[in-house]
Amino acid sequence: MTRVNHQVRLAARPVGLPKESDWDYVEEPAPEPEDGQFLVELEYLSLDPAMRAWLNPGRSYVPPVEIGEVMRAGGIARVVESRHPDYAVGERVNGAFGVQRYAVSDGGGVVRVDTSVAEAPVHLGTLGISGLTAYFGLLDVGRPEPGQTVVVSAAAGSVGNVVGQIARIKGCRAVGIAGGEEKCRWLTDELGFDAAVDYKAGDARAQLREAAPDRIDVFFDNVGGEILEAGLSRLARGARVVISGAVSQYNATEPPPGPRNYMNLLVMRATMTGFVIFDYADRYREAATEIAGWLRSGELRSREHVVQGDIAQFPEVLLSLFRGENTGKLVLAL
Amino acid sequence: MTRVNHQVRLAARPVGLPKESDWDYVEEPAPEPEDGQFLVELEYLSLDPAMRAWLNPGRSYVPPVEIGEVMRAGGIARVVESRHPDYAVGERVNGAFGVQRYAVSDGGGVVRVDTSVAEAPVHLGTLGISGLTAYFGLLDVGRPEPGQTVVVSAAAGSVGNVVGQIARIKGCRAVGIAGGEEKCRWLTDELGFDAAVDYKAGDARAQLREAAPDRIDVFFDNVGGEILEAGLSRLARGARVVISGAVSQYNATEPPPGPRNYMNLLVMRATMTGFVIFDYADRYREAATEIAGWLRSGELRSREHVVQGDIAQFPEVLLSLFRGENTGKLVLAL
After folding, report:
1. How many CB atoms lie within 10 A of CB B24?
2. Residue B267 is nearest to which of A61, A244, A260, comparing CB atoms?
3. What b/e readout covers A214-252, taking b as 16+ CB neighbours within 10 angstroms?
């Protein structure tokens, strides 16, 4: 039996917002695993804002995806052939297999997926890199104390919603900034955020004043631009600003202006710190165990925005992410 | 005997670069000390970039100087009348007496000046708030380790030159950014900086690459704007950016763009922290003792840029500060 691999490869470095033509759809025979390798068939692909940054040339926290290379992506897959002693056919695994139907792996960076804890797509979001980013960014970098105010931007996204929920679990006032009434209602009514700011409904700073009357102790930023400035304008003394992403900037053709009011860091004796989740790899298990416990107890809810489709649809689904169309983790189910 | 007080009072809130007419020169009878007070005659006035920020309305780390109020300034003065049990006529004291010839004080915020350690103007600079700012900003906020690279902007200023010298004393590579060949030569040839970047001599980023080949572990910023961006572009993994001031921005009429490349904080897992020296008041003595020791041993040199004049000249001397005309601490000797 010859398996046909479906792949999405980078065709051109996008300028500004990517176009579907920046990727090529390719079919070719699936690879054969060698000794010590196994072959997986992808079931779910993770779609992440950070993907945009991986398309830019030059140094970042990971090397860029090269032209002609299979697009980088995390995914959940099933082992369909194995010449590896530790992986059996039928097992489900999570790894950076790329945007393709089949991939070979030697097990490096791969973790088994336990679907008795939660369904597979949850392992890409709340139990995956998104949830881990929320966990370490909030607790290790932000270091909130009970009673403090935590504000998170892109709060209806896969990282942001978990940040707010963990803040609530830790006894903080949780405030989310999101675009649109529906997302905001989800945050407050279903996830237990104390307040939400709808930046599409006008003056975000005025809304933030009302939502964070005691100012902001931890500002967890996924957005950058004016939202970051709004957060900086409302810092409490000794605040921690956690830089997790800057989705408003990823598609800019010129470097957008930085935060004009960064000197509030001085006025408020505050700290702005960037972090990269991969640095916490040796503590993933500890965090995932705690998150799984919160999921089981119902203290934390997970939501996935699952789009059914095939590999070739990857570009259009990714573009929907930049239009903010997802609530919760965006996943392409193959 | 009636003493005549000479005063400089704020006349108008400057827009952009201050004009001399933003202050009024006033003469009036000197005040009389009441019980528990003493009268001082000012001998030296401290001129500081932060003065510009005190002229703006609105909340900052100190309240603004009000229209009609005597301009705020630190100074060295001699006690000329005393009804205070702890202060005798003839003693020299350091305090925020304002831009005036005579002031009364109850001793709050006042420290005695020991001119056997160093001449009076040094107590406004290297042994005063400038040196303390350098000390705590570098050692407590920046936390450099021996062998690391410390880069400081406005390095020929009263804070910056001490930052670089303490970095050198602590076994770091000390790099200063300053304007002009003469200032840069002073840093390397007289103060022992390992390298200097002359931002007026063209491509500061290229010079910085050469001056900091192992990248920057601590960037101590007094300037903001493009200089801060140059520093952010060259951070080492885990770097600390210390925000001490933003002299390039104080006279801007619009908030200047923030650092466009602040996301390098994420890429390099770096931290940007603002601080205000007044928070360290209970540790001033400890720091001043250590700085005085370095002065005595010759490990640290102090330079003051002393302008002779009278109270009425305060505005023009302050403006020379914003033109970068001083090397070391700018002091008006009355």
Report:
1. 15
2. A61
3. ebbbbbbbbbbbbbbbbbbbbbbeebbbbbbbbbbbbee
- Is A144:A211 a contact under the CB 8 Å cutoff? no
Beta-carbon separation of B269 and A263 below 8 A: no
A207-256 pLDDT tens trace = 999 999 999 999 999 999 999 999 999 999 999 999 999 988 888 888 78
What backbone phi and psi angles, to 5 degrees, belong to A151?
-115, 135
Q: Cα dist. A310→A6, A78, A296, B140, B321 in Å?
A: 9, 16, 31, 54, 65
What ipTM was assigned to the predicted interfaces of this complex?
A: 0.91
* B178 beta partners: B198
Of A175, A134, A151, the closest CA to residue A241 belongs to: A151
User: Is the Cβ pair A275, B261 closer than 8 Å?
Assistant: no
- How many residues are present in chain A? 334
CA dist list (Å): B137 to A121, B120, B162 = 47, 24, 11
Give residue B209's region: left, alpha or beta (phi > 0; psi -120 to 50): alpha
Report d(CA B6, CA A331) in Å as an integer.
73
Overall residue count recorded for chain B in this entry: 334
Residues on A contacting B at a C-beta cutoff of 8 Å: 59-61, 224, 229, 243-246, 249, 255-276, 279
